[in-house]
Amino acid sequence: MNKKSIALLAALLSVATANAQQTQLVKEPIKGDFPLGLSGKHIAMWHSHGFYYESKLDRWEWQRARCFSNVEDIGNMPYVVKYLDPMLKNAGAVVLIPRERDFQKQKFIVDNDLSTKGGIVQKKGSWETTKGGYKHKTILRPNENPFKGGTHLEIKSSAKETATLTYKAPVASSKKGDYAVYVSWGNTPNNVSDVTYKVYHTGGVSEFVVNQKMYGATWQYLGTFSFDSAHASVVVSNKSHEKGVVTSDAVRFGGGMGMVARRPSAFVTNNAKSSSNGETQGHKLSPEDYDWKTSGVPSYLEASRYYLQAAGIPDSVYSRTKYQNDYNDDYQSRPHWANFLKKNNVPIDLTLAFHTDAGTTPNDSIVGTLAIYSTKNGNFTDGRGRQLSGIMSNLIQTQICHDIQMLHNSKWTKRALRDASYSEASVADAPTLLLELLSHQNLADMTYGLDPRFRFTVARAIYKGIVRYLNGAETPIQPLAPNTLAIEKKGGKTIRLSWKNTEDPLEPTANAARYRIYMRTDDNGFSPKFKEVTGESAEIELPEWGRRYSFKVTGVNDGGESFPTEQLSACLFNNSKKPALIVNGFTRISAPKSFDLGEKAGFEWWEDEGVADGMEPAFLGYQQNFNRNEPWLDDDNTGWGSTGVEWWGNTVHGNTHDFTHVQGKAYQKWGVSYVSASRKAFEKYPKLDAYRFVDVLFGEQRTVKNFREERDTFAVFTPGMISALRNALDKDIPIVLSGAYIGTDMVEQKDSVAIKFAAEKLGFRWMTNHASTTGSVYSTDNAKPYIRGIWNFNCATLSPEVLNGSSVRIESPDAIEPTQKAIRIMRYHDTQTSAGTLLKSNGNKVVVLGFPLEAIPSTNQKNALMKQLFTFFGVEFKK
């Protein structure tokens, strides 16, 4: 049966269209509806396992083995939380996840009963306090439900707003950052379905409409926002088109740390396989002999069983074993949670359990993708046959394998489509897929599994499979992010923003019909408001002189909205000077470098840790065992691939796609106007003489081996880049270039053209990589006429700056030597090798650094260095 006939059969068997007519649980009106996408759909999904309490050992531990820098318990989080969740929401769906999705370690509870210290609830109007609601506790033990024992607030709805509640979170200035916002409300028969919530954040005000006829005595996710001490509140209004009541309970800002305390019960049962009948043996213990223990880790690392308790779900759902075995409770809780929501008016359309499994191969062959569904018990409660799960599973598995084979590996293995009564496949009262994407125990699989590009492909394939299952094969697919973004200065404060549509080679319907332009000011978050246009450019007048404005663009069609482009920024001052041009030359995202020598194989993290896409929550630590013949003995001794826990509980800072915004801060400080461009746009720039000088940020750009044997486009000095730089030099436009592999890449690729260009025109040659392990550099005596100082960039493993996520870690900076008439201007403190060169010859001014400028975390150090470079380039400052 082909893909089209499967989807058509699914459409005939499904009554999902009935759900599409219902009001959504949560909706953001400004985004609009996507009736040909997933508007009106509610999807429950979850990723793998999670950190849990093992009663028999009286310790918290992972449910799976640590291998290849990963552990399945969190290894699938990026697929689900970073990619699939926003894809589904961009198509209009409501996505429900029974695990914490926020990586923020801070948490603030604001409630009418008891708040985190400093939290405030401000009432306007005659709100009544009603029994039943959230009561804040810092620790939860068995049989404790935080959504019982407290109160909530109620008021009659009104056609015009007559009452509000304002929940203010005590976000200190030092705690500025991104926080997820969760709301809750009281369940009454008279609740209305269109309650307005406004979230005030650094980017402005985001408005949501919440259907309070659906279950509210739990945490319902609105979104993630940038908050600071002055902008961190949620306002609930009593305005409604319906007669009834508006209710409101606690609001949560941030994911926080685990709060469920565990110790053994009087009777502890053994772990049971998901496919078993649930009957297990056990033994007696004395609970009073043990102390209560919390996990001590951020909530997003914990298993769903603990999230559900903290979210007020009954223990009949999250502890089916009556607190006797948390392992069994965890996997059993997830489908029962979906059923609980469905019984409480949340119309679940389908469920998805996203896993990877075990298994190794003796060579570079792939274990591949398995799909499991269940026809056990015949029908769903609405009368539809459970064979729908098989149809949906086949459709999604086929889409995944097809897309991987087309984009990454033509020999990717499509494993069985299995009808089996695993708990996560058979319990939910909705079509269900239990996905085993690949083997986390096999190096060949994990060279893909750790790569952000592969994760995006898989998530997009699942999204496509879901939308085709629900809507049919001909449904339009949301676009890919636009490309070739650029900002040009026009007259006055006006800029021209331009981009290109990205064609999807797999999906002819995925072209953008229109585009949305989003803007942020200085270091604030993005405004939820956008400018929508149909062409591939727009002129925008910047609101003020001297402010730093950043932009991103999305593509939109009838299927939904794309992911955004990289961010580009601009800052203009009211003078006659030409602006500088900052170029984002850092486009790479990739897995760590790997090797396979037969007996020895694994990830060469010391050579290249790879580049995460934004913030990476699933990197556990560095591989320690490279002996392919070393067997697994226990999850504490996993043999080949065994991995440390250096990064446990911390997120890895990767390519955040905002480096012109980061670099532009120094330009703003010193009053230097600038605009910016993507490297793809820069390589095509026809008017470089419009710029005062050019600043190219190469970051950790480096050629990496692609999945399909071709080379990727992540080279530092591509032919287009060389041509653009040569054009600038011919016009005597000063240039500053910085990057960790600025010399290494061209030498590794044996690119004689780039090597010659660097030596003859840019004034440097490569000496070595791994030039520093401390990231400390100082200016040389030869540099005194131009720069003086000491600077530090993020290089040391697990430094506070790296762990705090302020910058990407540069594990292998370059040492470069001067050529021609260039001079050495910096050395690394630890190795005394050359860190930077400066060329001043025949009208050309070129500065080259073997480390990324954007990796300097100190604002003062960065500003001091940039001011000296500006002076060298001819910028005059008032004394």
From TrEMBL:
<feature type="domain" description="Fibronectin type-III">
    <location>
        <begin position="481"/>
        <end position="579"/>
    </location>
</feature>
<feature type="signal peptide">
    <location>
        <begin position="1"/>
        <end position="20"/>
    </location>
</feature>
<dbReference type="Pfam" id="PF00041">
    <property type="entry name" value="fn3"/>
</dbReference>
<feature type="region of interest" description="Disordered">
    <location>
        <begin position="269"/>
        <end position="289"/>
    </location>
</feature>
<dbReference type="InterPro" id="IPR013783">
    <property type="entry name" value="Ig-like_fold"/>
</dbReference>
<keyword id="KW-0732">Signal</keyword>
<dbReference type="InterPro" id="IPR033803">
    <property type="entry name" value="CBD-like_Golvesin-Xly"/>
</dbReference>
<dbReference type="Pfam" id="PF25275">
    <property type="entry name" value="Golvesin_C"/>
</dbReference>
<feature type="compositionally biased region" description="Polar residues">
    <location>
        <begin position="269"/>
        <end position="280"/>
    </location>
</feature>
<protein>
    <submittedName>
        <fullName>N-acetylmuramoyl-L-alanine amidase</fullName>
    </submittedName>
</protein>
<dbReference type="InterPro" id="IPR036116">
    <property type="entry name" value="FN3_sf"/>
</dbReference>
<dbReference type="InterPro" id="IPR003961">
    <property type="entry name" value="FN3_dom"/>
</dbReference>
